[in-house]
Amino acid sequence: xxxxxxxxxxxxxxxxxxxxxxxxxxxILLRMATVAPKASPWVDELQRMGQAWAEKTSSRVRFxxxxxxxxxxxxxxxxxxxxxxxxxxxxxxxxxxxxxxxVLAVPFFFQSDAEMIHVLGKLTPLLKQRLxxxxxxxxxxxHGGWVQVFSKQPIRTVAELQSAKLFTSEGDAKMVAWxxxxxxxxxxxxxxxxxxxxxxxxxxxxxxxxxPPLALTMQFYKDAPNMLDIRVAPLVAGVVISDxxxxxxxxxxxxxxxxxxxxxxxxxxxxxxxxxxxxVKEMQASGLKVITLDNAAAxxxxxxxxxxxxxxxxxxxxxxxxxxxxRERNAIRK
Length: 334
What we know:
This protein is of the alpha/beta class and 334 residues long. Helices cover 51% and strands 20% of the residues. It has 13 helices and 9 strands. Strands 1, 2, 3, 4, 7, 8 and 9 form a 7-stranded mixed sheet that branches. Strand 5 (165-169), helix 7 and strand 6 (185-189) form a beta-alpha-beta unit. 37% of the residues are buried. Residues 1-24 have low confidence and may be disordered.
């Protein structure tokens, strides 16, 4: 009896270990929602990231991206509780979670990728804390290129831009009010409505800010064939994961995933400029007219924008976040 008992316990412990190991290795499916088109280069890159996650975790983590969702408001509503564990959100969507993110989309605030990347690096710890307060974790940043203005009729002045029926993302009443207060005619819509409304002779909008890859992918440049080459702002985006999904992952798998995500982030930032250029060139071959302002006209745009966007401090962007961004941007300019 004294000989057999240890063997029984060893067998029992082995069975228990097998059960535990099975539970730990059960695949975790991470479904990511985004309004970005499924055929876009950004979703393609995120899919490659997900494939790498599966390979490096021996399929303990699986990933699938669902693009073309109607609006970022709907993405946020379903994040964590409505069928999606992850989301890729533009600053518009992130700002619905916390207004601090608005600082990354202030028109004409940045003049180069270098400025944006420096400020983003300085703000990231603070912005991560704000997301964690909402039970979300930042996985990586994305760079979708520089926002330009596409319009049915050529736009060359601030006055012409103010008179245009300008698309703005739905779900942000403060932004609509800010536009209106400053003399713009902003029309809040779901991003999926842009092609439809531009195609209509009397659509709700006749101009929209957008990055070139999006204009080409969604094909709305054909109905808004004038692009004001003014580089309004970089399109920064963030991929987030719900706390419920994050805590299900082992620390080992989290480390692997974040390492791969960091490499994906580098690619997205490194490829942004070439994607912009190649997509503009392709659209020009199909009739897009690029409107380039002379130095005086561009300076007028920027001077007007500086006056207008300063009013966002404290009302649409927390004052401490705005001041930190200004300080770091000015520091790198020096």
